[in-house]
Design brief:
alpha/beta, Aspartate Aminotransferase, domain 2, four-stranded mixed β-sheet, 14 helices, 14 strands, binds pyridoxal-5'-phosphate
Length: 422
């Protein structure tokens, strides 16, 4: 495969951009590869600047559940742009998308839009502390909540690959109120509530973690979180930045029938533009400025182009049977994939239309389990799939995604190619 132009572009990029990338995992270092530079994308097809085509299973980290460059979403975007791209003054699109989010996500009665998942989480945590007048935040090892200072403790995604799990540049005092516990560990969470329950502002969790690869909650773990937070007057925050509109229209909270107090959404909700949101119970959300004392703002928040892309996307996702079809196709694909790779020392975790192939024979229920996988072998698998024109998410600590645009032929070819890896 000729990748000369991408290699040259990378040399140029590192002159001006640290590591040549605007988000660290894109550098592909942990999988022993150098970055691709993409020229265009359509459906599930990525085309790099050398003219190579790849079938995309990363989909901009789960954003493109309809595939890239969807004609209906594009049309809405073009129409929005023809009226200007930002006003800094309310527009009707904001209310429309807010209504769609509130009507679909049970835990969200009021919602505010921001520009990234990081911002959504940061604001939700501030609000939780403002509401409870408490400081402590409980999170779980391997869950990633964006690059918020005080949540970079035992975090997943790109942070998982750093030797020290929290980032340099974060003073100890900033993380003094953050406690990270093992995911799926009922005893640990019970114990911490017994010891500090009355000082805990919130428990934040990816209800189905996808940033340590896909890991599933076990034995009513989420229900226990709901019970404990309710008992102690703490808030439960579901970080559904990946899972909202991915697992289903109502996210993980609908699937497991557990309503959190606050929810963050992102990725899919912006339809490919920088938009995310946090929302929750109306009485809590009323503490936000200008109604209340918790400050939160944004120059480009509720941007009309991003809102239009989000509205067009959610409307398409609301069509009858969308998730049933997508999830059924994924189930069949995962079943075939499991058969094809059996005996190769891998474990596949999957839910809805997302999955991770772990290079380990153990069941994977926690960050510790993921850290024990064979990452050298995963790197070799990534490079092998790339040579065969598949772009999978470039880390063991990430999820892969299926979109409506993946054809049965493409899924079958993935199974065939993956099955020949050893
Ligand atoms: C992606 C992600 C974030 C961060 O969102 P950004 O838009 O990258 O800032 C936060 N939480 C979860 C669960 C995510 O998947």
């Amino acid at each position: 495969m000729n990748r000369k132009k991408s290699e040259k572009a990378y040399k140029e990029a590192v002159k001006w951009i640290p590591g040549g990338v605007n988000s660290p995992v894109r550098a592909l270092r942990s999988v022993g590869a150098s970055p691709l530079f993409i020229k265009k994308a359509k459906g599930v097809r990525l085309t790099d600047i050398d003219g190579n085509n790849f079938t995309d299973f990363c989909l901009s980290w789960g954003v493109f559940i309809l595939g890239h460059n969807h004609p209906v979403v594009n049309k809405a975007v073009r129409q929005a742009i023809s009226n200007g791209t930002s006003y800094g003054i309310p527009s009707l699109q904001e209310t429309k998308l807010a209504e769609l989010v509130c009507k679909n996500v049970t835990g969200i009665e009021r919602v505010r839009f921001v520009n990234s998942g990081t911002e959504a989480v940061m604001s939700a945590v501030r609000l939780a502390r403002g509401y409870t007048k408490r400081n402590i935040i409980i999170k779980f090892d391997g869950c990633y909540h964006g690059h918020v200072d005080h949540l970079l403790v035992a975090a997943g995604s790109g942070v998982a690959k750093l030797g020290n799990s929290s980032s340099a540049g974060v003073p100890d005092s900033f993380v003094a109120h953050t406690i990270s516990l093992p995911f799926n560990d009922q005893e640990a969470i019970r114990k911490i509530f017994q010891e500090k329950g009355n000082d805990i502002a919130a428990v934040i969790v990816e209800p189905v973690p996808a940033n340590m690869g896909v890991v599933l909650p076990k034995n009513n773990f989420l229900r226990l979180l709901r019970e404990l937070t309710t008992e102690y007057g703490s808030l439960l925050i579901f970080d559904e930045v990946i899972s909202a509109f991915r697992i289903g229209l109502g996210g993980v909270q609908q699937l497991f029938d557990i309503t959190p107090d606050l929810t963050t959404v992102g990725k899919i909700v912006g339809g490919g533009f920088p938009a995310a949101a946090f929302g929750g119970r109306a009485d809590i959300m009323s503490l936000l400025a200008p109604d209340g004392p918790v400050y939160q703002a944004g120059t480009l928040s509720g941007n009309p182009v991003a809102m239009s892309a989000g509205i067009a996307t959610l409307n398409l996702l609301s069509e009858d049977g969308f998730y049933r079809k997508l999830n059924d196709r994924t189930d069949a694909f995962i079943k075939a994939l499991k058969t094809a790779v059996s005996g190769k020392g891998v474990t596949i975790n999957a839910i809805g239309s997302m999955f991770t192939v772990f290079f380990s024979e153990q069941t994977i229920n926690s960050f510790e389990d993921v850290k024990a996988t064979d990452q050298e072998r995963f790197g070799a698998f990534f490079r092998y799939m790339l040579r065969n024109n598949f772009y999978i998410s470039p880390s063991q600590f990430e999820a892969n995604f299926i979109s409506e645009a993946h054809s049965d032929e493409e899924l079958a070819r993935f199974v065939e190619v993956a099955g020949k890896f050893y």
